[in-house]
Amino acid sequence: MAENSYDTTRGTGGETQQIGSGLTTNHGIPVADNQNSLRAGARGPTLLEDFLLREKIFHFDHERIPERIVHARGSGAHGYFECTDPIPELTRASLLSEMGKRTPVFVRFSTVAGGAGSVDTPRDVRGFATKFYTDQGNWDLVGNNIPVFFIQDALKFPDLVHSVKMEADRGYPQAATAHDTFWDFVSLMPETLHTVIWAMSDRAIPRSFRMMQGFGIHTFKLVNDSGQSHFVKFHWKPRLGVQSLVWDESAKLQGADNDYHRRDLYEAIEAGDFPEWDLGVQIFDQELADSLPYDVLDATKIIPEEVVPLRVVGRLVLDRNPDNFFAETEQVAFLPSNVVPGIDFTDDPLLQGRLFSYLDTQKSRLGTTNFHQIPVNAPKCPYANMMRDGMMQTQVPRGRANYEPNSLDQAGEETGPRANGQVFTTVPQEVEGQKLRIRAESFGDHYSQPRLFWRSQTANEQAHIASAFVFELSKVVLDHVRSRVVSHLRNVDEDLASRVAKGLAIDLPAAAEPFRAPVDLPPSDALSIQKNWQETLQGRKVGLLFGEGSDAAAIDELIARIEAEGGTVFTIAPKVGPLKLTAGERAADGQLAGSPSVLFDAVGMILAPDEAQRLASDAAALSFVMDAHAHLKAIGHCKGSQVILDRAGIQDGEGVGPYADLPEMAKRRYWSREPKLRDLA
Predict the structure, then answer these.
(1) Whether 491 contacts 445, CB under 8 Å
(2) What span, in angstroms and rounded, lies between the C-alpha atoms of 186 and 192?
(3) Which of 128, 329, 406, 662 is least enclosed, having the fewest CB within 10 Å?
(4) In this prediction, what percent of the chain has a pLDDT beyond 90?
């Protein structure tokens, strides 16, 4: 075999295996399998003795300091979790066992790919991590706004992130997946396709953290006082509903306000408009798990809500901004290994690797094994153990009992804490099979669930997904990578593949050969944003343009009507200083050139005829209405401002009309307008 040559085959779970020579550990030990962790049986737990996994993750965890390698750009807030439907029959976790019980929390939202100085609105997965300060210790639910992940085994996490980050030789692109290395990885790893199709959907360009779902991703276990266990998946449902941007709007927001999501969250909390989410759980047993045509231990799979309905057990309220961004939002450390009695892990091989990785990476990022003593990380219940010293130790233990067992109490000395076997115990389970590197064959269907997601969307949402694939792959220089991605899409849906190929002006390649033939799963309406759109002004912001001579009474009335329905109004004028109106004066919240319509959910104009005539020649005013119209937003206007709409080529119709109708029009986006405005795949 020639140097650097390799044969590409498939493993027992359909994973891509490239077999050649030359790959070793950092200590020169040859690597036989770079795709699978060492586990006890194909579906069994990952073993601590896996030196390859530990070395690879250990090295990856320490590649950057001190910024997070992923999820570097984040925004956080304090709040509380309130139990609204206790489930003590399912779990001994105290926060879920008592009606009305409130537990303090800290939540951090984030982008994944970009650095701490990148922007808020790229196309990207969003992190949704919650630290519950329970009376039984800290529980960290560390998830995303997408319910699946790109890979099935934690061993591949460094490869995934290396591929999506800035390309190693040139240092760009920042916070973007539209480049060669990411799509090369995707094209060789069909297990990524389910998360990829979510990432190409509007889920990856959320309107606000406040209007974003969150998911625990993995299957966990709930354990009751009798030791009985059930499988569980965790879901956060925003009470404001799920809302997205459109792609052109997302791109323009990166210039208009690169802190858009951070500012939105901060200002809402400061104004007392506290964001809320319901915590829903999907509870199921082994019998149901065995009946499904996919494996519940596979982090690239969901269980549709139509199969296992959500049960809402509590609500999350964020009601306080951090006192100091660095001390809290930057120094907070989330650990999937932080669970409390009543919550336990499964053998999901991605979760098993995360249990090691997150703890390990904090030493590099925060500089000490004592990171748990930082106030935002410290439990709010008593804690004690025999661990001592280390860099930046802030506690001052007394006595000499730093070991156990000890009998120092017999000498009248403090003897220290002891284990309590009745508190947290791992659920007993049989461990199957031999010790080996292998992937379960049940993990091998990579196309059925992306097909399920695609077929659950509206026609407009499908057009957005296909167009996103075209945009991303148009940035890929390697022809064979583009073709290979489309070959996989043929197994998801022929129409999707054809639209992407047409958008790229390439021939439709032969379909990739699936490891397991995909099956048609029933569509799930719960997966569509547009099918579940909440028509409301609650939490939404309207931009209102006025100027010299505007009707003061009309402005006041419109603002009052919008605020009465839970919306906010941001006033805009050519100049921010006090302007004379028909009665009195008003200062604007923002200046027209610096307050484009991408910042708002809908826009209105109340202008005197001469002022409107003047603004009809102002590029900022024209862009204000043209972008609002292109981004499918409502536009309410007075008769005098019609000249601006005429100049912009915008006619009254669906979502465009008298400002008196704006409070009702602003509750939705107008998807039917889009085919007339842009060419979608």
Answers:
(1) no
(2) 6
(3) 406
(4) 79
Count Cβ atoms below 10 Å from residue 200 Cβ, excluding itself.
23
Q: Are 448 and 293 in contact (CB under 8 A)?
A: yes
Mean pLDDT of 377-395: 87
Residue 40 burial by Cβ neighbours in a 10 Å radius (0-12, 13-18, 19+): middle
Instruction: Tell me the H-state helices in 127-179.
Output: 157-164
Our separate counts of H helices and E strands in the chain read 17, 22
Q: Let me know if 292 is exposed, middle or buried by CB neighbors in 10 A (0-12, 13-18, 19+).
A: middle
Res. 1: pLDDT tops 60 = no
pLDDT in tens, 317-368: 999 999 999 899 999 999 999 999 999 999 999 999 999 999 888 888 888 8
Which phi and psi angles does 435 have, rounded to 5°? -80, 115
Two tokens at 603? 């826009």
CA torsion through residues 654, 655, 657, 662, sign? positive
Question: Which strand (E) or helix (H) includes residue 10?
Answer: strand 7-10
pTM tops 0.85, yes or no: yes
Which strands make up the sheet holding 541-546, listed edge to edge?
590-591, 568-573, 541-546, 602-606, 634-637, 656-658
> Is the CB of residue 440 less than 8 Å from the CB of residue 42?
yes
Residues involved in catalysis: 71, 144
Q: Are 153 and 353 in contact (CB under 8 A)?
A: yes
**Ranges of H-type helices in 426-568:** 448-455, 459-474, 479-492, 494-504, 552-564
CA atoms in the 13 A half-sphere facing the CB of 600: 29
Q: Tell me the C-alpha distance between 6 and 25, whole Å.
A: 18
Q: Which two tokens stand for residue 170?
A: 């040139």
- Calculate Rg over the CA atoms of the chain: 27
2 pLDDT above the threshold of 50: no
Q: Which amino acid is at 189?
A: M
- How wide is the angle at C-alpha 20 spanned by C-alphas 18 and 24, nearest 5°? 95
53 versus 290: the higher-pLDDT residue is: 290
